[in-house]
Amino acid sequence: MKFLIVSGLSGAGKSLTARLLEDMGYYCVDNMPPQLIPSFAELCLASQGQYRRVALVTDVRAGQTFSDLFIALDKLREMGCDYKIIFVEASHEIIVRRYKETRRPHPLAVDGESLSETIAREELLLEPIRRRTDITVHTSDMPSRHLERQLRSLLGEDPEGRPMSIIVRSFGYKHGLPRDSDLVFDARFLPNPFYVPELRDQTGEDGRVRDYVLHSEGAGPFIAKLGGMLAFLLPLYASEGKTMLVVSVGCTGGRHRSVAVARRLYEEIQSLGYPATLTHRDIGRA
User: Fold this and answer.
1) Which residues touch 49 (CB under 8 Å, ≥6 apart)?
2) Which distant-in-sequence residues (6+ apart) come within 8 Å of 185 by Cβ?
3) DSSP 55-76
4) Which end of the chain, N or C, is less packed with Cβ atoms under 10 Å?
5) How is 206-258 classified by DSSP, letter by letter?
6) SS3 category, 47
7) By C-alpha distance, which of 281, 280, 275 is closest to 205?
8) 194 in helix, strand or coil?
């Protein structure tokens, strides 16, 4: 069982670190009283693997001393639970700027003391746990994606995390735009099989309809340009930490043109090496 203890300066990014650890599969608890940690660990051990990775966030607000925390950590070791302490810090200037931007008071603020003085006082209070830190994370001017990569690397995991998954969806404009779409492409400029009697009752998954749509004038350049755009965009989305991208293709009713184009884009995305899912929202509508 893996335990992480997350501590550090207020405003340095402990909450963000906890959220990223949750995305990495850790069960996170904020400000648990140190005296409860051994009992909590016993529950985790008895869960038969349900809580194999746990992160506990603690800071100086839990008390003016970390002695109770250190006693609890010693008990963890006695129980056979390994743990690491992650200390999150940032420069004084960055922390001051963050508090100015959010207009939130520092949790240790007292009357007559400047924000810089409060931060310096908190640093002194945190010194005992800083001395026992296994991993130090500096978040000054660090985007969340870079922080996630650093955490994964420091914890011995794949820095890139799980690959971005892509949903390719066809839809009909007459039934409304899919609200969760990231990219939307309009296929209504292509000839409509609805007006071809022998194709009207088929869908874009039928080979004859697909050939009619994809072999029409303009379809080839359209697919080629979309493929080139996706080949350019997908690595950029992935590098920014996006874990899911929804690409929607629409036509009037969502049965013919959008279905055929969506399948072609789905095949193109798969050829680029990205896991993709193809769905047709309105293919069964009259």
Assistant:
1) none
2) 226, 247, 248, 249, 250, 261, 265
3) EEE--GGG-S--HHHHHHHHHH
4) C
5) SHHHHHHHHTSTTHHHHHHHHHHHHHHHHHHHHHTT--EEEEEEEESSSSSHH
6) coil
7) 280
8) helix
Between CA 19 and CA 25, with CA 21 as vertex, the angle to 5 degrees is 115
At 134, phi and psi to the nearest 5?
-95, -35
CA separation for the pair 263, 173 (Å, rounded)? 18
User: From CA 70, how far away is CA 21, in angstroms rounded?
Assistant: 22
How far is it, in rounded angstroms, from Cα 279 to Cα 214?
A: 19
| Joined tokens for residue 133 | 């830190």
CA-based nearest residue to 83, from 93, 70, 96, 98: 70
Residue 21 Cα distances to 42, 57, 87, angstroms: 21, 11, 14
Q: What sign does the CA torsion over 256, 257, 263, 264 have?
A: positive
CB count in 10 Å sphere of residue 109: 14
Q: Give per-10-residue mean pLDDT for the chain (286 aa).
A: 89 91 89 88 84 86 71 90 92 90 87 91 90 90 79 75 83 94 96 96 96 96 95 88 89 97 95 92 89
Among residues 246, 226, 277, the alpha carbon closest in space to that of 177 is found at 246
- Please report, as a single letter, which amino acid is at residue 128: P
CA distance 84 to 54: 11
CB atoms within 10 A of CB 93: 10
Ramachandran region of residue 66, left (φ > 0), alpha (ψ -120 to 50) or beta?
alpha
Classify burial at 52, counting beta carbons within 10 Å of its beta carbon; exposed 0-12, middle 13-18, buried 19 or more.
middle
